[in-house]
Structures are given as structure tokens and as C-alpha cells.
Amino acid sequence: MQLFPCPFCGPRNEREFHYVAEPGKTRPDTTGDITAEDWAAYLYDTKNEKGPVREVWMHLTCRELFVMERDSVTMDVLGSKTLRRTLPAEGAA
Amino acid sequence: MSGRRLSQGGLIDRSRLLRFRFDGRDFTGHPGDTLASALLASGVRVMGRSFKYHRPRGLWGAWFDDPNAVFNVRLRGDELPNCPATTTALVDGMQARAVNAWPNAENDLKGGLDLFHRWLGAGFYYKTFMWPDWHLFEPSIRKMAGLGAVDGKAIDGYVADQLHDDCDLLVAGGGAAGLAAARAAAEAGYSVVLADDHPTLGGSLYQGDEPIEGEEPQAWVAAQVAAIRAAGGRILTSTTVFGLYDHGLAALAEDRGFARAPRLWRLRARRTLVATGAMDRPITFADNDRPGVMSLQGAAEFLGRYGVLAGQRIAVLSNNSHSAPIVARLRAAGAEVIEADPAEGAPRALGGKRLSGVQIGARKIDCDTLLVSGGLTPTVHLWRHAGGKLDWSAEKAAFVPGAGPDHMLAAGAANGTFDLDPALAEARAAALGTPHATGASGYRVRPLWPQPGSKGRQWIDFQHDVTLKDVELAARENYVSVEHLKRYTTLGMAADQGKTANMAGLAAMAAIQGRPIPEVGTTTFRPPFVPVPMELYHGTRRGQAVNPLKRLELEPQHRAAGAAMGEYGGWLRPAWYGPEDQSAITAEVQAARQAAGVFDGSPLGKIEVMGPDAAAFVNFIYYNTIATLEPGHIRYGFMLRENGLIFDDGVIARLAEDRFLISCSSSHVAGVEAMLESWRQDGNDPDRIFVHDTTQHWATITVTGPQARAIVAALDTGADPATLAHMTLTEGRFGDSPLRIARVSFTGDASFELSVPASRAADLWQAVLAAGTPLGARPIGLEAMSVLRAEKGFIMVGKDTDGETMPHDLGFDVPRRKKKAAFVGDRALQTEAANAADRRQLVGLRVADSGTVLPTGAHIVTGDGPQRSIGFVTSSYFSPTLDRPIALALLESGQQRIGDRVQLRHLGQSLSATVTAPCALDPEGERLNA
Amino acid sequence: MNKTYSALNLFREGLRGQRGWAPAWRSPKPKPAYDVIVIGGGGHGLATAYYLAKVHGVRNVAVLEKGWIGGGNSGRNTTVVRSDYYYPESAALYDMSVRLYEGLSRELNYNIMLSQRGMMILAHSEAEMEIAARQVNAMQINGIDSQLLDTEGVRKLAPILNFDRGARYPIHGAMYQGRGGTARHDAVVWGFARGADRLGVDIIQNCEVTDVIVEGGRVTGVATTRGEIRADRIGAAVAGHSSVLAHMAGYRLPIHSYALQAFVSEPLKPVLDTVVLSPGHGTYVSQSDKGGLVFGGGLDRIPSYGQRGNLPVQETVIGGLSEMVPMFSKVKLLRHWAGIVDVTPDSSPIIGPSGVEGLYLNCGWGTGGFKAIPVGGYMLAHILATGRHHDLSRPFDLSRFTRGRLIDEGAASGIAH
């Protein structure tokens, strides 16, 4: 049972989390022309790195997406941070 | 004479007698005994048979390291298979039977197999049984294999408690080092859990007579226990730390007695100290498996813990300094002990079922018991579970813990510190995190490893009958990697997972190849440390709690109305109302078509999307254009995955300019919400869109049929259903509560979805039925609803779609061609596959009016040449409305085949049907406004 | 030295202490160059080398294995062999594999202990029975032996299952393939290794590929921990690490790596004669010839290269097994472990060109690679030898993702309401 750090809720049981994607992929502008190859690369290609990785996860209980850095071999968690540019509280301030 | 009980000593209660049976004979023992110690005390030598050759076997060890004595044990009607005799506490009335032996271990009919051993070496089965076929031989080989039989009876109340806990320091092992560490840490203010698998703490302290820090062992242990408890530490006895997992999680099994499920502790430990001691290694020599050849440490344990002397005339064969105090203790207890040096010559055990002596070179020693110690092997399993490395210590001739993760510590014999005082110092330092220099070791050992090429049958894995010759054969055939050795010979794969065998095995391979031992390396240490019942993991995740169904607010009302409840997409819902399905479904369909059906639609998803960017957002989420939807209006649409495949369908209502209500499939609510959140937070400004699942807040009752309008009108809602157009919604009141009325239809008849806060569901249900019953309305279940929608050709996602279906396959092609704005899955609708002419499209199928209903799952096949599936029946019912069978299917180029006659196949049977449009009832939609 | 395995030779060798057996395979030093290099000494890689030599006469072949042969998923799986697949492309591929398996012991002169004890996938509701019927019909049309069993049919084959109608996942019936079953996983690896070695293939263990040498868009060799080795045709059969190799060679794959756990119990006398899978519990089980219950379940849903499992999935799988067969709750678990599997978006394998000329792939088998070892090797050998797809492997080309021609066995069912 791994402990993952939700940036909002703190360390929680791995069962509460869902892996979403590798970060950094931008959805192509589909109102323009996109080759089949570019679309397939966006849809399917992965880095799937061995060792330190950055991944987007969802904490299912608070529904926030965040970026987690961990090691895909040792399972050590190196850190996590929110995807948001500004936290709601900071935005309000 | 072999083993006997001494009149004093040990941790047993001689004042009470426990009776038990073993292999049909009666025996007695005392509280504090194990089955093994009681049998040993009674002079029993042969306690088992080996797996392959059915060699007679006696005890090797006194605890988890014994591979030989494995029993099926029954107590008051409850039987457990494969209980190790050495770790099964004796209970009055136990009936034990050695596994893999018939009629008993002493006289096993299959004992003759040993005569054929020369043909049954490692991997013999890979070289034969190929002709004519393995199947011919397999059944008899299967019967020969296996250990105990499992009876078909589940044990009443055999349910594992599962606890979660945490601590600063987990100490695995309650011997001297573990106790010292736990006390030091507890007194320093750490929260400490100490776990030991024995019922009595003290580890190996009872093996010798020496005082520890000036006290008798029992007194010292008692003092440590008292101090640990006083400082707030917790002590778990009869508890095995059986696995270490990621992020400091330890799994502990707490024994709660025979035929009671152990308790599982999931303990999150900030630090874990491995203080699990060390095991005596066997010495590899000819016939070293004879009953009466026992581990020196095991004999010391039997003496110290159970007051049992393993033999009367005892030869001791040891290569290390650890044996001296034990020999002294055995002599003091009255045994005649003859010490021998294995360097004198190659030993050979003499005798058959009873050891009669040992030959060492030219010297022959008559003895009834031969105690051997080939050196100590630290118990490093937990260290390895946690990813710690092992170093080879040439000085100690053992693998000892090397570099490890920060949270892992090791101390005492488990760490290769075999001397008592240094072990105590090391343990205390480890517990407090203070620096500690290891002093010189007093432990002396002469390396003594298997000698390749030496004579006789020399056992390496006792339970699995792997001998030195097998290791030599594996090497000869190039199975030299330690993993190949294990897999080819099965060395280390027995119930004891190689606790006694692995070191000898890899040392033998090293010797054969002339490589250093560390270069050969070890196999992987994996949990569980000792076998644990599967029940431990099962716990309360049993019966309906495995995956609990969601329950309806109106379940009591449905049950009162005679509903047959069934699972639909994770919800327990009314399938139909009445004792028998077909007539009930027919009546419900007829009522819905002729008067009105009342349907509990509460589980249907109700996800609100709101905010200034909500309109653009849902327009992106949906395949269909939603941006143009007017407030108060409703549209049917699809949500796709980015790969263009249909994820869900349903209606979306625009409640206000900046507020939408998404109605998704009841089983997809969580998935749809997660999908919405993903897009909301990734690619949008999450402060301008808000997603809120209100599914459980609202109960929804759907009224459908010609009388639906009249029924809704009869409710005092403040809204006029007559003015409510199809695909619009309005708000009204139900008493003091808000009421949402949506006019949508899944049946083709005028339908109203009435939603109220869930707490008002029962009142609304009652009110609707009160208004509807005089008009002929009745509750309808899921099955009737399935028929009603199928008559109209309306799909159910997942039933009438599969893992290839795109919206244009269902006739919804406009957005694919015309929608300008980007939407999820858009580009994927333009691939080669998406544009293919032979896509499977939704059609109807018609059979003769008097014909039988097509089986759902029947395939449509091409008639010519070898058959090929071109589609399949997705939904198929008898339509009470049309009084004939109806069916929906996905069919290759289906739209072009309308009117064609097609062949179908179902479980070898041939059928035929005519392709039609999906909608069989009222294609013009007149009933909607009737 | 004795090279042929037979009862007679076993008898003769028994008389002289089994001293005459030849090594099952040699351990040669790597040559500087080969006609073909196969990366990965698991079942798929060794089968590739065997069929290259046997079917295509290409014998100047090296199999490079970073550890010991069969040390990846070939030695970590639950040994199930079956071809009960839905789509014709999958059915054809996996059924050829079962047919190759059926002749393998005699072809390789190595008893792989193929035990066609039958494989059933339970249906827990009438809706699941309809889906099972759809699948059985598809299989029968595709020529796969498949039957639909009712509850009594299931009871006859596996009376120890939980037939309580009130169970969370009651048994309504099953989809059954009689030719499904198990084989001894290590024996498959060793048999192919021995067969390939006898045809001249060099099996090189402890030889880790550290880089793929690409010159002018073509592959020309590999750098390894045992030096540079050249070949202008390279096959990659490195399940679990396909993305790592892709990274070396400069291409990307649609693959995620996940841990898949497996479990074995203490040995019991025979109680279960078939392989049983419960989709509700996500657990499947068979009993090995040795007597252990060999079982497993779904993936650990955390991308991973760590070859070990985690408690949550263990609880689901073991708890599920105890629900499927209540008497197993008192049976003891002996060992659990995990392998790293390649998971593709459609749960189907990738066979064919990688995008780098001369480098061909055999990967993406997900949780089902063992059953496909013979055919996976056969297909990769074909494309390495001829430069062209075999008809059966063409649908599994990497280009299917660009064309949208996915073969999604996983998504073929699943009802929403």
C-alpha cells in the first residue's frame, strides 16, 4: 500500500488515486489539419520511462489533478505539486 | 531410545496433560508444547515423508525452519491442511496425520519409490512422458504430487480481522536484540511495536544457560517486557512480520489459535528493525536426511523451550563456535554427547528409519541422534523484502545485511552479530540512531560447503528431495544460474521456501563451478516469510461486501410492490414486479404503452456543469453541438473518448446560460465525472468551470405512456405538463421541495422525468402511483424499460455498442461532418478505420411474426465459403406492443443491407432474419405527442 | 554425450548416475557479428531464434539476454495457454499458438507438460451470459473450440466453486475452451533454448544491451555489456522493457509498463482440474501438477518497472479467490511475485517494423504473452527472415494505431445502464 501525497489532502492511500497521463502533451488544434501520424502520436505514444518519472494523477476523493514525481523502479515518491497556476485561495487574495 | 521429556526445564506447564492423536496413535503433551515437541518427547522419530521419494523424515528444526514434519490437523471437526508440526501449538483433542504418506508416515506404501531414485533425478519429467502424450501420464503424476488434501469444509467464523496501525519503530523479532532495541526506543519516547512469532519472547536465549546482563534469561526477558510496556511500547507475540512493502508498510499475521483466522496488521512503520535472528545450516553429507539427524539449534530449542531432550546418545557435528554452550547444556541435561569434527572425513549417517550412528572417515560413532551445525545464516528475508542489499562475509561464511533503505535497520544475529553483548549494544544503538562501532566477532566458523563429486545421496532440499547429485546434474546441463538451478531442480521451492536449502544449494553450485559464493548470488526473497492462510487477505471483503451494490432510496417501496431486484451497472434495481419474469414484463410493457409506466430512474447520472466557460466546455465534451442549446431545453448526445469511440450517451439540459445538467448512464457516473474533471483541469481554466455530481441528491421517477401527462397534471406541481414541449424542462414544486420536470423519452411515448430531493422520493412515488393507478399506470422495471426502448430502436451503450462503435455507426453522422468547434475524439472520427465502408452499423432484425425471439449474442454470418461473422444481435425481445419478436444488431454496412435476408448462427444452430431499420414502433414519432 | 531425451535414454542414464547428459544449451562467447540478433532471451526471443533456424534456415543468430534466460515474464507468469479470443485476427494468431504448443514437446524433444485441462471464463449474470454467447459464437465461427456452459456444466467441471445463488458474483454459466490449459513455463523457455542451440543459435546470457546502433536510419548492431555486436537485422522481444529499448533506438511505442502479480499456494492433493477465471472477482486459478494453486488477477494500476506487487491488488485477488472457492480461505499462500508487462491501448500485441529500418518488434502482449510464445516467435522470425509480415501478424502492425484499426479485445463488452 503506497502513500501518495495529494497537494491538497496530504499523504493518502494509493487506492484513492488514478493515473491519468504523462505531462507535457498538448492536444493538437483539431480545427486545423492534423496528420494521422501526429494524432496517433498524441493519442498513444508514451515515454514510459524507467526510473524517475513525472506523471499526472487524479486524487479521486478530491478530484484534483496534480503532478507527481516518483521512481518507477523503487516506488519512492519524490514529490507532488498542483497543476494549477494559482491556488484558488491565492487567486482570491 | 530417542527423544524424551525431562522432569524440569522449559516453558511448558507440566501440571496439565493434553491428549492428541498422530497417525492413529494416542499421545500426550503439555500446554506450551507444539505438536512436534510433544511427539519428540514421546519418542516418535518418523514424522513425515518427503515429497518425491517418500523417504522417512524426522524433525530437522524446532521452528519455521523445519521442512519435514507437515501434518493435516483436525480439531473438533475443523481441519487445516499442511500445518508445520513445529509451529502448531498443541491443543487438547487434536488429530494429526502426516501428509503425503499412507497409511502413515512410519509405514508409507509409497516408500518403495525411493528404490527408483536413480531415474527420478532433477527434471526427469522434462526428458520423457512425451510419447504418445503427456496427458496419458499427467493424472497419475498429479495424484502423487501435492502435500495435504484440503477438505471441502469452510470453518465457521474463520474470518480475519484486519487492523491498520502505525508506529515510529517496528522491531521484528523478540529475542535479545529485539527486546533491547524496543526498550531503548520506547524509553526514548518513540512509539514502538515489537512483534515476535513465538508465544514467548526471548528468541534463542533459552538455548543456553548463560546469564544475560547478569540475569537468568526468563527474568531478563520479563524485565525488558515490563520496561517496554511501561514506556508505552506495544508487544505482539505469536505474530509474524511476514512481508515488508512499499513506503514502510509491514504486514503482520497474529496467530489467534488453531482453526481461528489470524489477524492481519497493516502497520505503517517509520523505521523497521530486523532482529529476526539466524538459522543453523545443515551439513551436506551422505544420508543426511535420516530421522534423527537434527539441527543443533533445533535440539537446543526443544530443550530450552519444551524441556525435551532430542536423544540419549548424541553425536554433534559442528564447524563453528556456536555449538559449545549447547553441547554443555545437552550434557547437563543428561545426554551422552560425542563431538566430532566434520573435517575428520566425509560423514555418512547410518541406519534406516532410526539413525543408528554416523561414520566419519574411518571413525564410526554409535548414536541415536546426530546434531549438526553447518554455521549460522542470518534471517535476512525482511531486509530483502524492503530492497536491502546483502554483503558476503567471508569471516562469518554468511550473507549479512549490506546497504539498505534509510528506514531499514538490522541488529543482532540477523545482522551477523552472533555474540550476545555486541548484539545488545548494536540493537540499542540502531534503535536510537546513535553511531555504533562493531567490535571483533567472537563467532568462529570454518567454511564447510557441499563437496561436489563426493559419494552418497546428500540432501540439500529435504522436503523436495533435491540432492547434491541433482545440483551436479543441473550444472552439467548448464542450468547454472541460481534461478535456473532452483527452477530445474525445484530447490528452495518447497513449503519452507528454501530456508534450510538455499545456502547449501548455491554453495554447491559455486563449488561445482569454482566460483565464489557471492558471485552465484541468491534467489529473490519474497513475501510471505512463512505461508499464511489466504483468509488473512480476505477479511471482511466477503459476500456482498466484495463490491457493494448501490441501493435505491425507494428499495423498500419496490420490494413492497413485489419487485424482483437485480444488479444493473452496480445498482440493485427492480428488474420487474411480480413472481415470474415474462408475464410481468409483458404486463409492464403493455401498461406503459396503453396507460403509463412508472419507473425509478434515480441512478441516472445528474452531473451539473456551471460557470462562465461551461457552455464552451460542454460543447467540447460532447460530440453534438451543445453551444446552441437554449436554456430550458434538452438535447440527446454522445460523449466520446479521444479515440472516437462512444464512451456514453444521454441527454444534457441547459438549466441556465451558464449551467448544464448532464444525464449519463448510471454505471458511468464516476467515469464521466472523472473525464469532465480531467478536461476541466487540463486545458481549461478550472476557476471558470465547476463540475458537481448531484446524482445521489435527487431521486428521479419517470412517468411514461399515454396517461403520463394526465398523471403529472394531477400532481400539484405548479407546472403545466401540457405546455411542456418534448426535450424541454421546467421547475415546479412538490410540496415544500423543488421539483424538476424534464420531458424526454426513452420509450417513444410522452415521458416526464420528475426529480425531487432524495429525501422526498417515497412521497413522490406514492403521489405518482396514487394519481396513476386509477388511470391504469403501474411500476415498471428495468427489463420492461429495455423492451420499450428496443421497440423504438434506442440503444444502451455497452449493450448495443461495442469497443468499435462510433456515433456515425448509429446514424448520428452530422456533427462528424459539420461541427466546426473542436470536440473530444473529433480527429479520431476521420481515420482510415472510421471512414471505412464496412463499419458495423446499427440495424433492426425481423423474423416471422410467429417466429422465436433471436438469441442475443447470435452472430450474423456470410453464407458463402468459410463462414465469417459480419455482425451480431445486441438486443432481442418479444415485443408485446407489436406482438412479434424484435431485435437490434450491429451489422457490417448495415445501412446498405436493409431489406436483405441474412443468416445467423447461435451455438451451432442456423437462423435467418431480415434486416430492417432499428426502429420497429412508430417511426414517425407520433406517439410522443399523442 | 547423450543429447536425445527419451524414456530409454533416461533409463540408461539412470544406470550410470545421469552423467552422460549434454548441456541443454551452450554458453558461447558472443561473436562480433551475426546475421540476426534477437534481443531478449525469454520465450518469445528464444522461439524467434528457433524458428529462424528451423523454418528459415537462418542459423547465424544470437539471442542476447541481460540476465538468465526466461528470467522475465516467461518465468513469472501463471502458465495459461488458450485461444478463446473474440476478433478473428486474435483468434487466428492465438490459435496458431495453441496448435504449435500442441506439437511442441515432440518437436523440441522436451516435455513442456502442456496440459489441456480446459479453461472456463465464468458468467455472473444473464447479461454476462449473453456476452458469453456472443463470444462463443464468434469463436465457433472462427474455428476455435468453444462452448457455452450452464451452471450445471460448470459444476461438473469444477464442483468446488461457490454455487451459492446469493453470492456477490453468482455462477450463471461459463464460456469454455477445452483445448485451453497450462504448460510448464520454464520448460517452454528451456525447450526452445535447447532447440535453437542445437540448430546453431548462440544464446548469450548476462549480456545486457546498453544501446542500439543506428546508422543512416538503419540498425547496424547493438552495444552490450559484453561488447559491440553487429547485425543488420534485429528482433526485439523484451516484454516489460519495450519502451526502454525504444528509447535507445529512438522511436516511441504506445505502451505503458505495469506490474502483474502472480501467486502460488502450498501444494495440495488435486482439487481443481480446469483453469477458472471469474471476471467479477478479477481472479483466475488453476492447480499445478505439483499441487499448488497458481492464481492471479488484474494489473497493479500504477505504472511500474518494479518487479514486485503491492497489497491492494493482493487483497482483491486473494479475497476474490476465497470467494470463488470458499474452502481455499484456509489454504496457505506460499509465495507471490510480479512481472512487468507491456500494455497497449487495445490490449493486443505489436508485431512488425519499429520505424527504424532492420529493427522489428514483438511486444505489447500485456498479460497474455506466455500463451503466444510459439506464435510470437514464429511471426517475428518470419518478418526477420523475409522482411515481410506473415498474414497473421499484419493486423498487429504498429501502423494500426495511425489507421485507427485497433483490435480491442478488452473493450468488446461492458454494459452501461
TrEMBL record, chain A:
**Which superkingdom heads the taxonomic lineage of this protein's source?**
Bacteria
Q: What is this protein called?
A: Sarcosine oxidase subunit delta
Q: Which InterPro entries match?
A: SoxD, SoxD_sf
Source species? Pseudodonghicola flavimaris
Q: Which Gene3D superfamilies match?
A: Folate-binding superfamily
TrEMBL record, chain B:
Q: Which UniProt keywords apply?
A: Oxidoreductase
Q: Which Gene3D superfamilies match?
A: 2Fe-2S iron-sulphur cluster binding domain, sarcosine oxidase, alpha subunit, N-terminal domain (3.10.20.440), FAD/NAD(P)-binding domain (3.50.50.60), Probable tRNA modification gtpase trme, domain 1 (3.30.1360.120)
- Alphabetical list of InterPro entries matching this protein: 2Fe-2S-bd_N, FAD/NAD-bd_sf, GcvT/YgfZ/DmdA, GcvT/YgfZ_C, GcvT_C, GCVT_N, SoxA_A3, TrmE/GcvT-like
Q: Which domain of life is it from?
A: Bacteria
Listed Pfam families: FAD_oxidored (PF12831), Fer2_4 (PF13510), GCV_T (PF01571), GCV_T_C (PF08669), SO_alpha_A3 (PF17806)
Tell me the ranges covered by the SoxA A3 domain, including all copies. 455-536
**Identification of the protein by name:** 2Fe-2S iron-sulfur cluster-binding protein
Organism name: Pseudodonghicola flavimaris
Automatic annotation (TrEMBL), chain C:
- Supply the EC number(s): 1.5.3.24
Q: Which cofactor does it need?
A: FAD; FMN
Which reaction(s) are listed as its catalytic activity?
A: sarcosine + O2 + H2O = formaldehyde + glycine + H2O2; sarcosine + (6S)-5,6,7,8-tetrahydrofolate + O2 = (6R)-5,10-methylene-5,6,7,8-tetrahydrofolate + glycine + H2O2
Q: Which Gene3D superfamilies match?
A: D-Amino Acid Oxidase, subunit A, domain 2, FAD/NAD(P)-binding domain
InterPro entries documented for this protein = FAD-dep_OxRdtase (IPR006076), FAD/NAD-bd_sf (IPR036188), Rhodanese-like_dom (IPR001763), SoxB (IPR006278)
Rhodanese domain boundaries: 36-80
Task: List the SUPFAM superfamilies hit by this protein, alphabetically.
Answer: FAD-linked reductases, C-terminal domain, FAD/NAD(P)-binding domain
State the name under which the record lists this protein: Sarcosine oxidase subunit beta
